[in-house]
Structures
1.
Amino acid sequence: MAKPQFKITNWSTYNKALKQRRSLTIWLSPLFLMMKRVFGFSLRALQRFVDSI
């Protein structure tokens, strides 16, 4: 039997919970993937760009 999957609707709370647990899990939102296409940066360069904002 497959493990049930749940759709996350409150991302800010979910991200805070991950930080609290010190989880290294990284979730890429569709917005982040769209920005990668728009700017044409490599993933690492885009991450630095987003972190600088």
2.
Amino acid sequence: MAWLLIIVAGLFEVGFATFLKLSDGFSRLLPSIGFFVCSALSFSLLAEAAKTLPIGTAYAVWTGIGATGTAILGMLIFNDPVS
């Protein structure tokens, strides 16, 4: 169950990074709300998973999912360079 929590937390991390970009410095209301909701869910799920998983492992997997997902979405949605 903890691994599922980490995966979902990582996906919410991708969400909060994406909403952060879309919020335009928190000047747009709906993306700003999306950022705060996704970040709260992501950190809450990470904290719950860390109750049973080693924190180093949980954090590394969470960060890896978030970084990879955010990079992929950046290339697909925001035309970020591949290199």
3.
Amino acid sequence: MMALASAVAIAPVTAAPAIPKEVDPVPMVTIPAGEFLMGNPEGKGRTDEWPQRSVYLDEFAIDQVEVTNERYLVFVKTTGHRSPPNPYGTGPLLSVKGIDQLPVVQTTWYDAKAYCGWAKKRLPTEAEWEKAARGTDGRLFTWGDEPATLKRANFDREWEEEKTLHPVGSLPGGDSPYGVKDMSGNAREWVQDWYDADYYQLAPDRNPQGPEKRGVVRSIRGGSWHSPMSDITTTARGRGGFALQTHGTGFRCVRSLADQTQQK
């Protein structure tokens, strides 16, 4: 594992090409083309993370932070897409004060896909999400291998209404090697792939797009405010049905910088 780490250096964070401000002005981080270690060696982590493999990805850009209530409600007002249920009490989500910079939650996979399409982006593949979180040195958490603390990640908590989720980007100690924020805890994130527990055994080693077969659940990554430490690692895989809505599930988007990725 360390051989790849020493051979592939993490490039400094560079800005992705600008996108129109009237669509989605969130900063994006460029993840350079190259190999990284995906998954865990047998005997470490969970069986659906086995085996660990060296995977090559083309260059892409990823939202630096999770999609916020503020950004999602612009999408709702612009397109007429339905607003997610209000997790903070009664009344429409639009009426709740002080939540603009919290990650939007209670979004379905369809909601996440629709938002990213509107923003001229797409959902990340599992491989893209994991590389953006982990870098190339095979680390356990976004910040390294040291145990999680509440200064690095929002996790292992009970629901406290508006106090539960943290404003995006407010825990810089948990940044990934590329400077991507909140990928361990806070809100777990929808990705593009169908979920298959055995996929890593069969996946291609270049730009994997997820299982070809259509299943009944999609993959979710990163863990949430309620997750135990074991679920906020860079390799932990979650899953949920298309219509799943929870107080801890949101998303972020990516954009291809090489025209190789097509949504399935």
4.
Amino acid sequence: MPSARLSFLLPAVLALAIGVYGYYEAGTIRTEHLVIKTTKIPKDKNRFRIVQISDVHLGLIIGEERLRKIIEAIRSADPDLLVSTGDLVDGQIDGLHGLAELFGEIKAPYGKFAVPGNHEYYAGFDKAMEFIRDAGFTILKGVAVNIPRTINIAGVDDPEGMRFGLYKDIRENEILSTLDPNQFTLLLKHRPIIDKVSLGMFDLQLSGHTHNGQIFPFNLIVQIFFPNISGYFPLKGNSHLYVSRGTGTWGPPIRFLSPPEVTVIDLVREGISLFKLIFHRFI
């Protein structure tokens, strides 16, 4: 009898411990830092800083308290450019009144840009886009923009839009071909899928969607469908991919061995000394 009781209690205690830790981990946002050397930023700039958020899932579970933590992490990074790579909002967005204005606390001199994820469609696409615009983001849905003498930014739609008859069907290479190849080209795409035809036409693709499985060992399953599940991946044609683990949570507010992140990407001019880069951060 004692051994039977023990065999019941041990898994229950373990599950409780994982749940408590997972709740703590989900609320502890890490800042990940990626440095990419390039000749494609202006000579008068030593560094251009991009901050990425992804899969925040603002809604019924992720609300003001978590968003304020995210905003503070972004502000601390002092971005030149802020991007959201999809799923900023979730299925329940009626209670988000006033949260969009919090993004106004972030000063990103080169702008804020976002692409739709699959959950923007579940939330009600028009309402989701309204919230994202109110938060100060320019939505890139199958379009590209050029910030003169600085950077190109292209964004593609999420294929979930096909189910709703709202998908903007335009090939990546058609969008990218309109941009100056001598400027650094940033491609925003919710799902970490690589269009081989586009390789060499963009310098860095930023994606999310996978949550890195969110709760171990689900990452092993997710990786079957998305081999580039999280982190940095060099690609052919001098293109690069970075996949965020996500900044929020979906479903239970728990993460296990997959902490949420705000990603800081520094584009550093090729040949710059470390001393100059460090000094630039403090001026």
